[in-house]
TrEMBL record:
Any Pfam family the entry gives: NUDIX
Nudix hydrolase domain span: 37-164
Family annotation (InterPro entries): Nudix_hydrolase (IPR020476), NUDIX_hydrolase-like_dom_sf (IPR015797), NUDIX_hydrolase_dom (IPR000086), Nudix_N (IPR029401)
UniProt KW keywords: Hydrolase, Magnesium
Keyword hit for Hydrolase: yes
Domain of life: Bacteria
Record organism: Pelodictyon phaeoclathratiforme (strain DSM 5477 / BU-1)
Database matches in PROSITE patterns: NUDIX
Name recorded for this polypeptide: NUDIX hydrolase
GO molecular function terms noted in the UniProt entry: hydrolase activity
Highest classification ranks of the organism: Bacteria, Pseudomonadati, Chlorobiota, Chlorobiia, Chlorobiales
Needed cofactors: Mg(2+)
Amino acid sequence: MKSYSFCPICATTLERAMIDGRDRMFCPSCSWVHYINPLPVAVAYTINSNNELLVIRRAHEPALNEWALPGGFLEAGEEPHEACLRELMEETSLKGKIDRMIGIYQREVELYGSLLVVAYRVIVDDDAITINHELFEAGFYPHHLIPEVRIPLHRQIITDAALHDSVPRGS
Ligand SMILES: [Zn+2]
């Protein structure tokens, strides 16, 4: 991830210093500190009424052309579950309902730096898909026919969701 060379407030050249236990860039003129925080992301593990999983093939970087779960960045002021359903709707036109949270994850991605990812299990009744420009294709697959998902985080979410699903209800 690229970092600042100049203060975004006063345009002074930034300097490096240990601040709050980490090596950070700061402005010697106005004391602005470049704190680097993770970007929040919501991911949708989406199931239709046949218990098939929705996977999409990405039409943009990062992970261009890779099979993945739908998802994207939270907007300011947005609840994570709202972002999850909005991204699902934008990418596939599907209207989902949150079933439960699967987990919260931290990942480093070259393009964006640190990500904080919240994954939800989402259920759809109507599974007719219309994809947007962010996808090459999308579809619901029974678990033994899911295209190979190679993004490590998305593999982890699929594994974590399945672990929970294998626990008998009411036991
Ligand atoms: Zn400054």
